Amino acid sequence: xxxxxxxxxxxxxxxxxxxxxxxxxxxxxxxxxxxxxxxxxxxxxxxxxxxxxxxxxxxxxxxxxxxxxxxxxxxxxxxxxxxxxxxxxxxxxxxxxxxxxxxxxxxxxxxxxxxxxxxxxxxxxxxxxxxxxxxxxxxxxxxxxxxxxxxxxxxxxxxxxxxxxxxxxxxxxxxxxxxxxxxxxxxxxxxxxxxxxxxxxxxxxxxxxxxxxxxxxxxxxxxxxxxxxxxxxxxxxxx
Length: 239
What we know:
Blueprint: H1 3-25, H2 30-59, H3 64-85, H4 101-125, H5 127-153, H6 159-181, H7 187-212, H8 219-238
Helix pairs in contact: 1-5, 1-6, 2-5, 2-7, 2-8, 3-7, 4-5, 4-6, 4-7, 5-6
């Protein structure tokens, strides 16, 4: 495992922790970061992960239909996961008290592990793809930290238990990176895995983060989203 992978894994850890602190201190600026993360995740799905998955599938004669099915089913799976276990509405806390904090936070930990696995899988393609995916995940992990603290506190969980789940959520992507970079992944499995992460990132960007920005319709929201898209567009063109 090279130094770059280790550094990026550590950045996911600190990004999650910082997000958990920011939700308490700087709540009013969150819509702008949500917009930025939404733009970057959608862009990395279409401009990076999906093209690479299709390239691999063509090189091994894997039907493109399998790739698209993986994208659709992944999108559907994450919609079910959020519907039954997660909550992301930061303002409507009283409407979601029926969701148990540890269950919601535990689901976020699993989700964060898969984010880390996306980084490791991307590095199996090449370092450039891995770097771009890692940057998008790092931006998103910030919001994961926010959501972990939110789902715990809104369900009247103790601060000590909230901190424990925040740390678990911060460690999870690091574990995902280590797990996927330490093993060899066959190309057919890699193509499907990348497609699965396309569905995940599209759902998070378009259905989870983007709705949060509707509470603030200022021009800054549009600019933040445009910057997220532009950053990934430039990176995928240059790297």
